[in-house]
């Protein structure tokens, strides 16, 4: 539906970001700095077009995706590129970083950092920034949306209705209640906490698994994912992706969740052993799943397409115009702070 | 006189605590059998298929007559009218004036719904017919669905799922949608369901406003004295009031215009709450941002112009259609009928 560009500024943090951004004191030399000569490499197209437009306006923007042969871009321009703007799809891996000798900063249009070689950045003294907090609400909203959509079969019912005459011959099937179901959260960070807050309003008892127990929370802690899965009806994956959390949802966890359990993944595809998940769903050993991420995006397992107890989304976790615009402002704000030698707004490294 | 020893044994047995307990259980069993026998003969008319569990239980406990068993309803009623002491109806088919008039021995209408718009309450009151409904047990489900509809509409959940299943993700990303958290929510009718919706929406950081026949002293939400004011001051308008003559078409052209091209309407009330042709043209012409609808003016008919729109979510009146709630509603219907026939206070009387 139409959403005005101006509406993005209603994001709660957007006005803060804009204020910080525009209040950054400028030195005489930086005022004279010709930012249009600073080479910034954008790794892939990103929505909304606002980010690309602003980067193009302020810097010498090079678009990686316009060059089918990457060396065509890198060879002539590698000395110019001082910044990379990447995202959750294409970040800055070792190969790219090695090809850019003048790289000073990677400003990621994402909160996840798994596509950036952080160790290499640290070695080279390359700064890294990201966009935390901004996507928290959207990701948490999506977690709840997926739960409701799976349990109440919203898409299935909508299709049932749009087929027209079908409703005249009989009602849609009974579904499963959400209120009061126990919710287990893997990873009680910003997004996990936001999901817990929302689920509590539906009277859901909340429990969690995390690397360590959190002192400032009343939710029940389980020291293992299997224990958590055995003691909840809806398991939500919201932790960050690291080598330790890869396939944290495996066969044993899926079995512990069981034929009435529902898995919600708004983390990363590799959090889940996808092959095991698919067979559990197809065989009825798992009650349902709401998935926004997959192991090999944009591929999604076709065996799931015929199931009505799953909801499959194309990685739209933070895909609202309000949030993406605020994220874009944060990327731009971090780049500007860096080139003006000011403190970065949201540094990682 | 010496009593026979067997008498002493029986006296000891019945006067002990265990004996008294056994006595009590025996008495209850006898009472239960007598009650069951009494109720088995009570004719209960079910107006339409609504719950297989409810139908089974009514069959088991009463003399069940199903109105849809016969093509010639008038004849069916004529033949069985004397038998029928109770009607079990719902939001599809209740107990209107004509039905009530045809049942001279009708004592109670136990509705498998919270809404009472399909029951002629005035006639029931005149005839001394009791009426019960199923409040509270379905509040959570309906409130959950309202939030589910708002999220599904704003974040285009169904559309995005279809995008993926139809293989379109391989060629491009799905488009951007619009955020739910923080949007202002206006609730029409702050009863049980409206309050439950407000509680949930608050957890998403949504400021809440409402319109009701009168201000609620215990509500911390902003009150608007007219529906138009409410619509002009919120981004998501939720219809959650009862359907009465006054609330029919309460969402009309003016309210829709006040909500505007970025506003969303969520209807989990009744279809007739909304002027449907006005709603359809507003959506088709882009004068309203989107809608999540569980109810329609002429169910199961739904305006086909809505089928092509991606900014609407259309459900088939499933507000309380979960396994758990359907059973809870059915149990309440049965409990009210039993209470009535056993001369006990009704659990959830309306009249």
UniProtKB/TrEMBL annotation, chain A:
Domain D-isomer specific 2-hydroxyacid dehydrogenase NAD-binding: start-end pairs: 144-317
Source superkingdom: Eukaryota
Residue ranges of domain D-isomer specific 2-hydroxyacid dehydrogenase catalytic in the record: 44-348
Any Pfam family: 2-Hacid_dh_C
UniProt KW keywords: NAD, Oxidoreductase
InterPro entries (alphabetical): D-isomer_2-hydroxyacid_DH, D-isomer_2_OHA_DH_cat_dom, D-isomer_DH_CS1, D-isomer_DH_NAD-bd, NAD(P)-bd_dom_sf
Keyword Cytoplasm annotated: no
UniProt KW Oxidoreductase keyword: yes
Family: Belongs to the D-isomer specific 2-hydroxyacid dehydrogenase family.
Name under which the protein is recorded: Glyoxylate/hydroxypyruvate/pyruvate reductase 2KGR-like isoform X1
Source species: Coffea arabica (Arabian coffee)
Gene designation: LOC140005116
Automatic annotation (TrEMBL), chain B:
Keywords: Oxidoreductase
Pfam hit, one: 2-Hacid_dh
Domain D-isomer specific 2-hydroxyacid dehydrogenase NAD-binding: 147-319
InterPro entries with a match to the protein in the record: D-isomer_2-hydroxyacid_DH, D-isomer_2_OHA_DH_cat_dom, D-isomer_DH_CS1, D-isomer_DH_NAD-bd, NAD(P)-bd_dom_sf
Classification via SUPFAM superfamilies: Formate/glycerate dehydrogenase catalytic domain-like, NAD(P)-binding Rossmann-fold domains
Keyword Oxidoreductase on entry: yes
Oxidoreductase keyword on record: yes
PROSITE patterns: D_2_HYDROXYACID_DH_1 (PS00065)
Residues covered by the D-isomer specific 2-hydroxyacid dehydrogenase catalytic domain: 45-350
Entry's family note: Belongs to the D-isomer specific 2-hydroxyacid dehydrogenase family.
Protein name: Glyoxylate/hydroxypyruvate/pyruvate reductase 2KGR-like
Source organism of the structure: Coffea arabica (Arabian coffee)
Taxonomy of the source species: Eukaryota, Viridiplantae, Streptophyta, Embryophyta, Tracheophyta
């Amino acid at each position: 539906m139409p959403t005005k560009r101006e509406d993005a500024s209603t994001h709660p943090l957007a006005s803060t970001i804009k204020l910080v951004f525009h209040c950054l004191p400028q030195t005489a030399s930086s005022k004279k700095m010709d930012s249009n000569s600073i080479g910034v490499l954008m790794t892939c197209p990103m929505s909304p077009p606002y980010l690309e437009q602003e980067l193009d306006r302020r810097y010498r923007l090079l678009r990686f995706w316009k060059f089918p042969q990457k060396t065509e871009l890198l060879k002539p321009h590698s000395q110019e590129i001082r910044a990379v703007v990447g995202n959750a799809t294409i970040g800055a891996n070792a190969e790219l970083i090695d090809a850019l000798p003048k790289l000073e900063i990677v400003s990621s249009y994402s909160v996840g950092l798994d596509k950036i070689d952080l160790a290499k950045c640290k070695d080279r003294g390359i700064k890294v920034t990201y966009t935390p907090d901004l996507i928290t609400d959207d990701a948490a909203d999506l977690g709840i949306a997926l739960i409701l959509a799976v349990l109440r079969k919203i898409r299935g019912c909508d299709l049932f209705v749009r087929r027209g005459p079908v409703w005249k011959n009989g009602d849609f099937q009974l579904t499963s209640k959400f209120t009061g179901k126990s919710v287990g959260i893997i990873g009680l960070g910003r997004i996990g906490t936001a999901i817990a807050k929302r689920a509590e309003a539906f009277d859901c008892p909340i429990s969690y698994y995390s690397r360590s127990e959190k002192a400032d929370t009343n939710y029940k802690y389980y020291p293992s994912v299997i224990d958590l899965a055995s003691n909840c009806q809806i398991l939500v994956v919201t932790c960050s992706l690291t080598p330790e959390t890869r396939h944290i949802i495996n066969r044993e966890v899926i079995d512990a969740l069981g034929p009435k359990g529902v898995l919600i993944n708004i983390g990363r595809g590799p959090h889940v052993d996808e092959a095991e998940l698919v067979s559990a769903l197809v065989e009825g050993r798992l009650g349902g799943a709401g998935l926004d991420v997959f192991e090999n995006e944009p591929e999604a397992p076709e065996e799931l397409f015929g199931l009505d107890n799953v909801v499959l989304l194309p990685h739209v976790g933070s895909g609202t115009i309000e949030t993406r615009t605020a994220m874009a402002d944060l990327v731009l704000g971090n780049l500007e702070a860096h080139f003006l030698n000011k403190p970065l707004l949201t540094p990682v490294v | 006189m010496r009593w026979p020893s067997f008498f002493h044994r029986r006296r000891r047995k019945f006067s002990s605590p265990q004996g008294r307990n056994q006595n009590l259980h025996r008495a209850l069993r006898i009472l239960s059998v007598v009650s069951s026998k009494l109720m088995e003969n009570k004719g209960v008319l079910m107006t339409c298929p609504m719950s297989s569990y409810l139908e089974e239980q009514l069959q088991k406990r009463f003399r069940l007559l199903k109105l849809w068993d016969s093509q010639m309803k008038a004849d069916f009623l004529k033949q069985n009218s004397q038998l029928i002491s109770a009607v079990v109806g719902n939001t599809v088919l209740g107990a209107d004036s004509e039905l009530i008039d045809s049942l001279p021995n009708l004592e109670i209408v136990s509705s498998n719904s919270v809404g009472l718009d399909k029951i002629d309450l005035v006639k029931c009151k005149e005839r001394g017919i009791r009426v019960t409904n199923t409040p509270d047990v379905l509040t959570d489900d309906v409130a959950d669905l309202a939030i589910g509809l708002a999220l599904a509409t704003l974040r285009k959940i169904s559309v995005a799922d279809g995008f993926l299943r139809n293989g379109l993700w391989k060629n491009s990303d799905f488009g951007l949608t619009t955020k739910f958290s923080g949007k202002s929510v206006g609730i029409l009718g702050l009863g049980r369901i409206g309050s439950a919706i407000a509680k949930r929406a608050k957890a998403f950081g949504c400021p809440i406003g409402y319109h009701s026949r009168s201000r609620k002293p215990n509500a911390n939400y902003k009150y608007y004295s007219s529906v138009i004011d409410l619509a002009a001051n919120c981004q998501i308008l939720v219809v959650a009031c009862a359907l009465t003559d006054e609330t029919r078409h309460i969402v009309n052209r003016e309210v829709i215009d006040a909500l505007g091209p970025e506003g969303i309407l969520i209807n989990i009330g009744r279809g007739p709450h909304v002027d449907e042709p006005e709603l359809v043209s507003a959506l088709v012409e882009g004068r309203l941002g989107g809608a999540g609808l569980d109810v329609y003016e002429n169910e199961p008919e739904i305006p086909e112009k809505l089928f092509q729109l991606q900014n609407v979510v259309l459900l088939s009146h499933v507000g309380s259609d979960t396994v758990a709630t359907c059973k809870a509603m059915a149990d309440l219907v049965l409990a009210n009928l039993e209470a009535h026939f056993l001369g006990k206070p009704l659990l959830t009387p309306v009249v």
